[in-house]
């Protein structure tokens, strides 16, 4: 499958889609963004981003691309010890949806096409090292992207939290992935620690009040989902 075919496949779910969720040719220009090291834009199909691990040569118009798989070690407040990492333990890196949360509305559909699936030994996910009394783990192959159903998450909430969720909206910072870049994540990847490390608004790239997004926590769409990436 070519990357042009990937775009056409995505447009089968959303015929009006003409942009990657963060904007075409945007992530590499925002060098302070936490997304910048992870994604490379395909020149002739800028709606498609390349992610992986290792050096890629002469690929779909990219002469050379140095790819590095995202790792919790670069973004979490704490990290799995070197000893445990050597034994194959890791964490979910970051839970997210493929949305800029500034200027662009969240996409209706995201597609993920695996060109080469990593081989090798499996790793063991720890859900949280700080506050998970269950000690549960999950055995996964390398290169795993885990998907979660927002519909299921809502359905298992108790009534009071369902009521809160449907009445709550979130106003995002301008350029939120740049704004949060200096901050550190919780060990489960589900949130940012409140340490006041976010960038001041006057240090962000140029922004407009009209492009700031306020979005509901719950929206009635089948694409309500997030996925967490983890280290290899």
Q: What Rg do the Cα atoms give?
A: 18 Å
Helical fraction equals: 10-25%
Alpha-carbon distance between the termini? Answer: 25 Å
Low-confidence stretches: 222-232
Total helical segments: 5
Task: Sketch the major β-sheet.
Answer: 5 strands, mixed
- Mean pLDDT, as a whole number? 85
Helix and strand content put the structural class at alpha+beta
SSE topology string: HEEEEHEEEEHHEHEE
Strand order of the largest sheet: 7-6-5-11-8
* Whole-number tally of structural domains: 1
The percentage of residues in β strands lies in 15-25%
The best one-word shape is globular
Structure in a nutshell:
This protein has 232 residues and is an alpha+beta fold. It contains five helices and eleven strands. It is globular, with a radius of gyration of 18 Å.
Describe this structure in words.
This protein is of the alpha+beta class. It has one domain. The protein contains five helices and eleven strands. The chain has a five-stranded mixed sheet. It has a two-stranded antiparallel ribbon with strand order 1-2. It has a two-stranded antiparallel ribbon with strand order 3-4. A hairpin with a 2-residue loop joins strand 3 and strand 4. The C terminus is likely disordered.
Give me some keywords for this one:
232 residues, alpha+beta, 5-stranded mixed beta sheet, two-stranded antiparallel sheet, disordered C terminus
């Amino acid at each position: 499958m070519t990357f042009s075919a990937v775009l056409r496949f995505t447009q089968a779910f959303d015929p009006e889609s003409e942009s990657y969720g963060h904007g075409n040719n945007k992530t590499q220009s925002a060098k302070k963004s936490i997304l910048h090291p992870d994604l490379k834009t395909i020149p002739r199909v800028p709606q498609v981003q390349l992610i992986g691990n290792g050096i890629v040569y002469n690929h779909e118009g990219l002469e050379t691309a140095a790819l590095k798989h995202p790792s919790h070690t670069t973004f979490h407040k704490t990290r799995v010890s070197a000893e445990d990492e050597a034994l194959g333990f890791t964490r979910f890196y970051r839970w997210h949806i493929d949305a800029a949360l500034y200027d662009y509305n969240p996409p209706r559909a995201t597609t993920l096409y695996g060109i080469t699936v990593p081989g090798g030994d499996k790793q063991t996910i720890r859900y949280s090292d700080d506050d998970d009394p269950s000690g549960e783990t999950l055995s996964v192959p390398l290169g795993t992207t885990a998907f979660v159903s927002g519909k299921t998450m809502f359905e298992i909430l108790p009534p009071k939290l369902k009521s809160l969720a449907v009445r709550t909206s979130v106003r995002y910072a301008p350029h939120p992935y740049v704004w949060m870049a200096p901050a550190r994540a919780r060990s489960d990847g589900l949130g940012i620690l409140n340490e006041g490390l976010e960038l001041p608004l006057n240090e962000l790239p140029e922004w407009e009040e009209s492009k700031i997004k306020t979005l509901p926590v719950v929206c009635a769409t089948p694409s309500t989902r997030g996925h967490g990436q983890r280290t290899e």
